[in-house]
Design brief:
By secondary structure, the protein is α/β, with parallel strands linked by helices. It has nine helices and ten strands. Helix 6 packs parallel to helix 7 and helix 7 crosses helix 8. The longest helix is centred in the middle third of the chain and has 23 residues.
C-alpha cells in the first residue's frame, strides 16, 4: 500500500510539472540532466530520451554560457531570477530565454544538483531599444530636475519665499536661479525671502553664484531677505557683494519674516 501511495504522488507531481508553461530542467551534482518536462522538450526541440542523461551544457549556447549562469547563481547565494541567456535547440538555433534557477543541497549542506525554469522571451527590437533608452534618459532628467528644484511660492501679496533644502552645487543652483527668476517675472513680488537652514552649501563654490543671483533680483526691483545664512557663507560672500545694503540677513526665519512683512506695511500682532 505504501508503495502505491508513493507512485500516486509521483504521478501527480509529474503531471503538475508537465503542465507548467515554462521549461523545467533538473540536474545532479555533475550537471547531468535528470528531469525534463514536456515544455523543455518543446523548447529545445529534443525528445525526453535525448535530454535525460545529457549534460546541461547541451541546452546552453556553449560551455562559457553554462559556466556564466552557474557562477551567477553562486554569486546570488544559490538562487537567481530572470537571468537573460540563450538556449540551444537540437538544430543549433539559439533562443533567448530568462532563467530562474536554484542550487539544491542535502540535509548536511552538500550540493546535490539544481533545478531551473527556462522562459522564452522576445528581445527588444531596435526601435523598442531606442524608445526604452529615451525613456530612461527622460526619467533621469526628470529626477535631476526634481532634485535640482527648490520650492518658491507667494506667502502674502508682495512677499515670496524660496526654501533651499539639501546639497547645493553649481548645476543645481543654476536650476534654482532660473526657477526663481521665472517666479519673479510671473508674480512680481516686492520682497523675496531665502530660507537656508536646511541647505548644505560649499561656500567657496556657491558664494559667487548667490551674489550674482542677489544682484539680479535687486536689478528687478525686488528686495532680498535671507534667513539662517551659515557663517562660512557670510564670510565667503562679503568680499564679492560690495553693496551689502541690498541684502538683509537674519539669524532666524521668524525675525526675517517679521521684518519682510514690515517692509510691505504689515504688522504682526500678538492675540491676548
Amino acid at each position: 500500500m505504501e508503495k502505491q501511495v508513493v507512485i500516486h504522488r509521483g504521478g501527480h507531481l509529474e503531471a503538475l510539472l508537465n503542465g507548467c508553461p515554462d521549461a523545467i530542467l533538473a540536474v545532479n551534482a555533475e550537471g547531468i540532466i535528470k528531469f525534463a518536462n514536456k515544455e523543455a522538450c518543446k523548447l529545445t526541440e529534443r525528445t525526453m530520451s535525448e535530454l535525460i542523461g545529457e549534460s546541461i551544457v547541451e541546452v546552453y549556447a556553449d560551455m562559457d554560457a553554462a559556466r556564466d549562469a552557474n557562477r551567477k547563481i553562486y554569486q546570488a547565494g544559490g538562487t537567481i531570477h530572470d537571468l537573460e541567456t540563450m538556449t540551444k535547440t537540437k538544430s543549433g538555433k539559439l533562443i533567448p530565454v530568462r532563467v530562474s534557477a536554484s542550487h539544491l543541497y542535502d540535509s548536511n549542506g552538500k550540493y546535490i544538483g539544481g533545478v531551473g525554469y527556462f522562459a522564452q522571451y522576445r528581445p527588444w527590437g531596435n526601435a523598442e531599444s531606442k524608445m526604452k533608452t529615451r525613456l530612461e534618459q527622460l526619467e533621469a532628467e526628470l529626477e535631476c530636475r526634481e532634485k535640482a528644484s527648490a520650492p518658491v511660492f507667494e506667502l502674502y501679496p508682495g512677499l515670496s519665499i524660496m526654501v533651499l533644502d539639501g546639497e547645493l552645487d553649481v548645476e543645481r543652483f543654476k536650476y534654482i536661479t532660473a526657477n526663481l527668476l521665472g517666479h519673479l517675472e510671473k508674480v512680481k513680488p516686492r520682497v523675496v525671502l531665502f530660507e537656508l537652514s536646511k541647505a548644505i552649501i560649499d561656500e567657496k563654490e556657491i558664494a559667487p553664484h548667490l551674489a550674482k543671483t542677489i544682484r539680479t533680483v535687486r536689478l528687478l526691483g525686488v528686495d532680498c531677505f535671507i534667513a539662517n545664512m551659515p557663517t562660512k557663507l557670510a564670510q565667503a560672500i562679503e568680499p564679492i557683494l560690495p553693496d551689502l545694503g541690498s541684502l538683509r540677513s537674519f539669524s532666524s526665519m521668524n525675525i526675517a519674516l517679521e521684518e519682510a512683512l514690515k517692509t510691505l506695511g504689515y504688522e504682526i500682532c500678538v492675540k491676548h
